Amino acid sequence: MFRGVRAQGSLFGSSTLTAPWSLLFVDGAPLTLCTVLEGSGWILPEGHPPEYLTAGETLILRGPAPFSFVDEIGTAAEPIECGKECATPDQGGTRHRLGWHDGPHGGPDGATTLVTGAYPVQGEIGGRLLDTVPDILRVAPDGTADAVRTLLAAEVAVDAPGQQIVLDRLLDWMLVCSLREWFDRPGGEPPAWYSAHRDPVVGQALRLLHDDPAAPWTVSSMADRAGVSRATLAKRFADLVGEPPLTYLTRWRMMIAADLMREREAATLAEIAREVGYSDAFGFSAAFKRIRGVNPTEFRRALVELPDADNLPERVAASSGR
């Protein structure tokens, strides 16, 4: 789940700001991480109350609605639109561009340094992680993420080859640490697939399925690898994950297949079938329709007609009158 969500170079922004300022983020990213390295400011999410951020605090926002970062509510600053192609305006002391920093210490006294990472979450696997995240997730300035913030602050102040790659990966690291801390918080309700990874038996079985989904798995072969009986694995897996091991495997394979159809337009259904553990396209098509409600051909056609649609299988089924 985490592997499919990554910051990408053109979507990274660093801003060192002196009041008044107003940045309007309009790129519509499905997920955006905002962390204040120095100073403070207000995040104004569309449709939600304002969120005040001080140094060391992080906010994760679900898109695609735009949001603003301002020095104060009701600021007199004119909004500056920031997105994939954000320019470098000088307006009221506010400047913003990709990978830019203002001096060795981040800027003048009293300045605020904001780092944002936009995540173009795509496909079935990334979407499953996105479904577990609330519209706004606040991360406290402590825990593992705090160490990543220290590295971010140091890297933002360095203009060196490879900086963009380092910043992207640091943002990925912070996102994963932030989500783990949120899942593990007292009284939290993490998704079943996350909690189950902590179980020594079911976690091992899940890693096997994720690492090699095309293998000819049976409950017995998974149980042998996990070092328990078939009955023990079947019961613990169903109790912790919410469905039997082979049902989970089939759903996982169909998620991978759906993403492969998005990413590789030239691949045949037979090629995709083999990559997810089916010897022929017929058996794969039957399994895909059973799990997703539409056959692979209909799904692939909808990718062309509705490339940005949410709940694509349901949209295809509705358009087909089912």
Automatic annotation (TrEMBL):
A GO molecular function held by the record: DNA-binding transcription factor activity
Keyword Repressor assigned: no
Keyword vocabulary terms for this entry: DNA-binding, Transcription, Transcription regulation
Domain of life, source organism: Bacteria
PROSITE patterns in the cross-refs: HTH_ARAC_FAMILY_1, HTH_ARAC_FAMILY_2
Residue ranges occupied by any HTH araC/xylS-type domain in the UniProt entry: 203-302
Pfam families named in the record: Cupin_6, HTH_18
Protein name in UniProt: Cupin
